[in-house]
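Input record, target 12 of the design panel.
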């Protein structure tokens, strides 16, 4: 009951005229970012983060989260009309979405995609509303050892459950830890890894890093690939929307299943991309029309879009309740909270109730506004792709440079941004994940502080991480996730040796 009262207070905050304006602007900017390949939710939020520095924290987080929702919606436009995934998680949408457009059903495909996205996000927001306060209350009893165990499980889950090879994830995470260690030691006050440079005394600013890694890195890669845009045009009228909406209830099982898959993959570090592929695969396997998937089936659009939005939204749960981001975008938002002087985690629900519930309320309204905006403006946003990429790319780079310079009014930050951009480009080319690097960069200092505090309390004994049932279970689960790839490989080998397996066939 208390959660419902707090939620209504959140709606009162969001419905202030300035916050409504910020919400609409965020949605529109997000759709543009989603439409343009080479950007994306995390990239757009990172690039536009400096715009929010002069805003109140609640308005700032509303704008950034709405940029994210808009990017999620915008990715479907390019997938359906141009067969170009605007977002990584919209790849699966191209399988049936673009064939529908080629068959003259672009309006139906886009309506199904947008509506399914809204449904998936709605399921995830309801889950956050009900579960987040409970998780936060539980986490209030955490001491330094428990806090480090939570950070440890976040790192281990990226290694053991991520879609990237564990070795590459560890390498990316180690680089992030090294970058987080540069600057002044928060415990002793001594300088570390500055090499006599006064510019490095404050360390590597999170915002500079993410603008370079995501913004510049993606643009460099897109410039190398030489993007060319061509595709189908589409218009959505009320009749098309209504006819599609009448058809969608037939796929309620697919929507529910995809929402559950998306929520689970969002809370864990799986993310929206594997959630969309997993949901598409399950829908293809379980549907009576599964053999026709890939030829233009509405169900093949519903499944990935529902899962992707559910995953993208639910990734904010661990970020708000525990201070652990569940996705690259959530990691960028977490960095934004720290810049505004807010500490994500259980105390946020106690000390900043208006902020938390304003954000949750904005998730409901933001996705609804996003649905209305994209349904009414598809031709406009699709026409953006007619602009040559040779014009779009320099504009994005200039925006990134301005954003980097405004952090400390320093040209050194712009140079650092370019260095991080090259690093991001190399990571993409070598297929190394950026999310673990960002995670380590954001959480590295906090994890180190919690670990050292725990060591001081235990006089240097690691047994403190097994001193009670709570911290012991979290640490044990973290270690299990760390070795999970080896466990999975062992299970496969055992199955292969069973009668009927690979060995049995030989």
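The sequence produced for target 12 reads:
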């Amino acid at each position: 009951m208390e959660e419902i009262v707090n939620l209504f207070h959140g709606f009162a905050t969001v419905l202030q005229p300035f916050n409504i304006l910020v919400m609409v602007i965020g949605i529109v900017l997000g759709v543009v970012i989603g439409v343009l390949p080479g950007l994306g939710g995390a990239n757009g939020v990172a690039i536009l983060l400096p715009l929010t520095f002069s805003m109140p924290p609640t308005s700032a987080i509303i704008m950034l989260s709405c940029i994210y929702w808009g990017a999620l919606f915008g990715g479907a436009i390019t997938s359906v009309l141009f067969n170009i995934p605007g977002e990584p998680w919209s790849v699966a949408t191209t399988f049936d979405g673009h064939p529908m457009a080629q068959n003259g059903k672009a309006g139906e495909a886009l309506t199904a995609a947008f509506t399914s996205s809204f449904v998936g996000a709605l399921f995830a927001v309801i889950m956050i509303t009900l579960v987040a306060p409970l998780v936060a209350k539980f986490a209030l009893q955490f001491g330094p050892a428990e806090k480090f165990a939570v950070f440890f499980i976040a790192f281990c889950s990226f290694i053991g459950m991520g879609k990237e090879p564990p070795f590459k994830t560890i390498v990316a995470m180690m680089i992030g830890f090294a970058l987080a260690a540069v600057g002044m030691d928060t415990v002793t006050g001594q300088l570390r890894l500055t090499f006599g440079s006064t510019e490095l005394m404050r360390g590597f600013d999170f915002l500079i890093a993410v603008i370079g890694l995501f913004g510049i890195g993606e643009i460099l890669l897109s410039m190398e690939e030489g993007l060319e845009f061509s595709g189908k045009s589409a218009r959505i009228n009320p009749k098309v929307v209504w006819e599609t909406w009448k058809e969608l209830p037939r796929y309620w099982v697919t929507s529910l299943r995809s929402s559950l898959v998306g929520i689970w993959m969002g809370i864990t570090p799986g993310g929206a991309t594997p959630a969309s592929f997993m949901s598409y695969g399950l829908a293809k396997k379980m549907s009576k029309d599964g053999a026709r998937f890939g030829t233009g089936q509405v169900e093949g659009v519903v499944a990935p879009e529902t899962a992707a939005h559910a995953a993208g939204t639910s990734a904010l749960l661990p970020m708000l309740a525990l201070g652990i981001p569940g996705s690259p975008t959530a990691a960028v938002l977490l960095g934004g909270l720290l810049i505004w002087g807010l500490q994500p985690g259980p105390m946020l629900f106690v000390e900043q109730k208006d902020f938390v519930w304003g954000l949750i309320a904005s998730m409901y309204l933001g996705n609804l506004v996003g649905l209305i905006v994209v349904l009414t403006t598809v031709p406009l946003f699709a026409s953006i792709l007619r602009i040559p990429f040779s014009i779009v790319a320099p504009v994005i780079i200039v925006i990134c440079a301005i954003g980097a310079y405004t952090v400390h009014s320093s040209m050194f930050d712009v140079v650092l941004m370019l260095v991080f951009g090259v690093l991001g480009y190399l990571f993409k080319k070598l297929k190394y994940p950026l999310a673990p690097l960002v995670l380590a960069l954001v959480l590295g200092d906090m994890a180190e502080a919690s670990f050292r505090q725990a060591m001081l309390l235990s006089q240097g004994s690691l047994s403190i991480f097994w001193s009670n049932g709570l911290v012991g279970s979290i640490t044990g689960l973290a270690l299990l996730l760390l070795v999970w790839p080896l466990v999975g490989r062992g299970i496969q080998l055992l199955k292969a040796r069973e009668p009927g397996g690979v060995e049995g066939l030989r």
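The chain has one domain: 2-505.
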